[in-house]
Design a protein that fits this description.
Helix content is 38%, strand content 13%. By secondary structure, it is of the alpha/beta class. The protein folds into 2 domains: 228 residues, Phosphoenolpyruvate-binding domains (TIM Barrel), CATH 3.20.20; 29 residues. An 8-stranded parallel β-barrel has the order 1-2-3-4-5-6-7-8, surrounded by 7 helices. Helix 2 crosses helix 4 and helix 6 runs parallel beside helix 8. The chain is globular, with a radius of gyration of 20 Å. Bound molecules: 5,10-methenyl-6,7,8-trihydrofolic acid, 3-methyl-2-oxobutanoic acid (KIV) and magnesium ion.
Length: 292
């Protein structure tokens, strides 16, 4: 459906450096829509979601073929430096969404609704989701909660906005959940299953399960018709998500147990900054070739 192929670069000079605005990838790749994710579940094809918070990283991840990018409220931690996701606001997130959407011509871009912007009522949730679509140009929104936010999910989807749900450990409720903890153990299993079914019935196109025992996450994945996206929820989910800085080794300090580092970007970048500064101090940069 409507695979509007990305326009090619219209740069005046072939050799001009590209600082922005250019398409991230060759044309012809499919623009990902929710029905593609549904089809992948039917085919048993796993997919990867990553967070992104700006244009430049969104381009790289779109080029890498990541089908879904999440502008997470984890921006609270990795962009703004807050301790939790509780303080981040709609106005701090929307500009990040705009950058990611411009950088990702193929990926489905999902925007996290921040704490305090949707819990009060279906009306509040729809108003917030609408801002992320109109001002952020997001393709879908995500919110935390199961049964308790089913009316919100129903109202947003009824307005034509796809919703990704998020159950299990929901970081915005860290204070109510008694810390960063695995959910769905023991008695919690029944509630987790009820939450999964509630969000599917309310119209969610997909659901994130965070820090849920692998076996339970597998059961839920088989029970649901919509794709599940795990983070600390085992390999039987239909998809996986990680915060990109965690995945790339660009987060400082201790990371959660579910994180695997696929690169050491932080070390690389620190090294580049130090090497640059050394050359400036030594007078070896800029050289003649960098001068006019
Ligand atoms: N960089 C980053 N990565 C994330 O995955 C992430 C964020 N930020 N910010 C928002 C939330 C917060 N998340 C978190 C934060 C801490 C733990 C954590 O400390 N987990 C313990 C759990 C111990 C247990 O219950 O067994 C761990 O060791 O994994 C988990 C998820 C996930 N999200
Ligand atoms: C970790 C993912 C699922 C998230 O909600 C976020 O990055 O905010
Ligand atoms: Mg989040």
């Amino acid at each position: 459906m409507s695979n509007s192929s990305a326009p090619s670069t219209s740069s005046a000079s072939e050799n001009a450096p590209v600082y922005g605005g250019a398409p991230a990838a060759p044309a012809k790749r499919t623009k990902i829509r929710t029905h593609h994710l549904q089809a992948m579940k039917a085919e048993g094809e796993r997919w990867a979601m990553l967070t992104a918070y700006d244009y430049s990283t969104a381009r790289l991840f779109d080029d890498a073929g990541i089908p879904v990018l999440l502008v997470g409220d984890s921006a609270a931690n990795v962009v703004y430096g807050y301790d939790t996701t509780v303080p981040i606001t709609i106005d701090e997130l929307i500009p990040l969404v705009r950058g990611v959407v411009r950088g990702a011509p193929h990926a489905l871009v999902v925007a996290d609704l921040p704490f305090g912007s949707y819990e009060a009522s279906a009306e509040q949730a729809l108003a917030t989701a609408t801002r992320f679509m109109k001002e952020g140009l997001a393709h879908a929104v995500k919110l935390e909660g199961g049964e308790r936010v089913a009316p919100q999910i129903a109202a947003i989807t009824a307005a034509g906005i796809p919703v990704m749900a998020h159950i299990g450990f929901t970081p915005q409720s860290v204070n109510g959940l008694g810390g960063f903890r695995v959910q769905g153990r023991g008695d919690g299993a029944e509630q987790l299953v009820a939450d999964a079914i509630a969000v599917q019935e309310a119209g969610a196109f997909s659901v994130v399960m965070e820090m849920v025992p692998a076996e339970l996450a597998g059961q839920v994945t088989r029970k649901l018709t919509i794709p599940t996206v795990g983070i600390g929820a085992g390999v039987e989910c239909d998809a996986q998500v990680l915060v990109w800085q965690d995945m790339a080794g660009y987060t400082s300090g201790r990371t959660a147990k579910f994180v695997k580092r696929f690169a050491a970007v932080g070390d690389e970048l620190r090294g580049a900054a130090a090497a640059y500064a050394d050359e400036v101090r030594a007078g070896t940069f800029p050289a003649a070739e960098h001068s006019f």
